[in-house]
Specification:
Chain lengths: ~210, ~260
């Protein structure tokens, strides 16, 4: 897979690539992320993971080590972190040839689910994949047939065709309120974090 | 006078760096503000603040026998900004525990220090800004994972005698919902809701332009929310010398 030269917009060492996925989505970046597991810098070259984006939505995944593309490439990447991550932006249309290779494509929300386990981000990404440029928040109908098909094939998320965003938002708001009403659960989270912080304070000498 | 705030969230992608710069620019209307990219593994601030091309960064200051901190301070958008570099080699060579001396040095010459913190609690280096700060601003999205992580951040802060200045809800898409969620969340946080920042095309446009929100879209609703948050912060009047001494004496082991 040959990628066009891009403009570096982010370079970092990350334990998981959530920030990069959010960043690409927020900026509606058309370009690609190169994820290089840190282990491969120190040991032997295990290859790099490539995820391309069209207006912030992941389109193609490829792993240079296993030479696998599509969902299997995400599986190859999911096990390896931390990464050095570089995000490049390219001109609109520069990735069209790469994006035409269906065998390399992944469903819009799959990187968020497989690489960072974030269903909310996955949902936002799916919404963005169906929205016109500049209106990521909208819930307009979906547009890319090829990605729709693969989305349905490999994820179990029930994605209603009409106005999915509102329903999802309502459900999420209800769940957030229920979470905050559950005082015992919140107390348990806090107690666990406090214990962890105190144990680490000792370990780290804070 | 000086007060140091850590801008923190347990999870990445909450808009922490955007929030740090926006709060900094809003506070700069009244105070002398220094923003430090204390998220050392993840150079980020420089991409938000027209600093991609600078030569000396915090990483260069944090290596043994490295550059003086003054060399890594850049005046941008009415702020003093200390960015991290992007080179992995520089990151590996940098000793994050030297951050306390950097903050102590900066404290002598500014009113407010904002530490853009790492989106994790998994290492000494990541937690250090929360330890060093006087107070923490917890950036949240109105989602369960984000609230849960924000609560953890607060517990860590409390364990290290760092108070909570308040919570900042970011990327808010539903005004009605946040008016129900924020009061419920406030019951668990030791500070007030400083502001709720709407999810906004202006924020994304600013990111695409590589400029801080308050420079790119100063009249936007999101910018107004950050100004409101800055007003709600009520910066405390700490003695510079005392604060600097405290930073220097923060007990930090040799290496992460």
């Amino acid at each position: 897979m040959r990628l066009p030269d891009g403009r570096l917009v982010r370079s970092r060492v990350v334990t998981d690539p959530r920030t990069a996925l959010v960043d690409a989505l927020d900026r509606e970046t058309t370009g690609y992320a190169v994820l290089e597991p840190q282990g491969s810098l120190l040991l032997d070259a295990d290859g790099q993971g490539i995820v391309t984006f069209e207006r912030g939505v992941p389109v193609v995944a490829y792993h240079t080590g296993t030479e696998r593309g599509g969902p299997p490439a995400l599986a190859d990447l999911a096990a390896e972190g931390p990464y050095r991550l570089e995000l490049f932006a390219v001109d609109a249309g520069a990735l069209d040839r790469v994006h035409a290779r269906d065998s390399l494509c992944v469903p819009p929300g799959m990187a968020a689910e497989r690489l960072v386990g974030d269903s909310t981000l996955a949902e936002r990404t799916r919404e963005a994949s169906s929205a016109p440029a500049g209106t990521v928040e909208s819930n307009a109908g979906r547009s890319r047939g090829v990605r729709d098909e693969s989305d349905d094939a490999v994820t179990t998320v029930d994605h209603a065709e009409s106005d999915p965003g509102d329903e999802t938002d309502d459900r999420q708001v209800g769940a957030v309120e229920a979470f905050l009403d559950d005082e015992e659960k919140v107390a348990a989270i806090r107690a666990e974090a406090r214990e962890e912080a105190e144990a680490r304070a000792e370990e780290w000498g804070f | 006078m000086v007060e140091a705030f850590a801008i923190a969230s347990g999870k990445g992608g909450t808009g922490k760096t955007t929030s740090t710069l926006a709060l900094g620019m809003a506070l700069a209307a009244e105070y002398d503000v220094t923003v430090v990219d204390a998220d050392m593994g993840m150079a980020n601030l420089l991409f938000h603040a027209d600093l991609e091309a600078v030569e000396t960064t915090l990483h260069d200051v944090l290596v043994e026998g490295g550059a003086p901190v003054e060399a890594a301070v850049y005046e941008r958008h009415g702020l003093s900004v200390v960015p991290c570099g992007t080179s992995l080699a520089d990151f590996s060579a940098a000793d994050p525990t030297r951050l306390r001396d950097v903050v102590a040095t900066l404290a002598a010459d500014t009113d407010v220090i904002l530490l853009d913190s790492a989106a994790t609690l998994s290492s000494r280096a990541a937690v250090l800004p929360v330890v060093l700060a006087d107070r923490v601003v917890v950036v949240l999205e109105p989602t369960i994972p984000s609230l849960s992580d924000g609560l953890k951040v607060q517990e860590y802060a409390t364990s290290y005698d760092t108070d909570t200045a308040g919570i900042l809800f970011n990327k808010v898409r539903d005004d009605d919902a946040i008016s129900r969620i924020a009061p419920k969340a406030e019951r668990y946080f030791d500070g007030p809701t400083l502001a709720t920042v709407p999810a906004s095309g202006d924020v994304r446009a600013a990111r695409r332009a590589g400029r801080p929100l308050l420079a790119h879209a100063p009249t936007s609703g999101a910018a107004a929310a950050y100004r409101e948050a800055a007003r709600a912060l009520e910066v405390r009047d700490g003695d510079s010398g005392t604060v600097a001494d405290r930073f220097r004496s923060a007990v930090v082991p040799e290496s992460p």
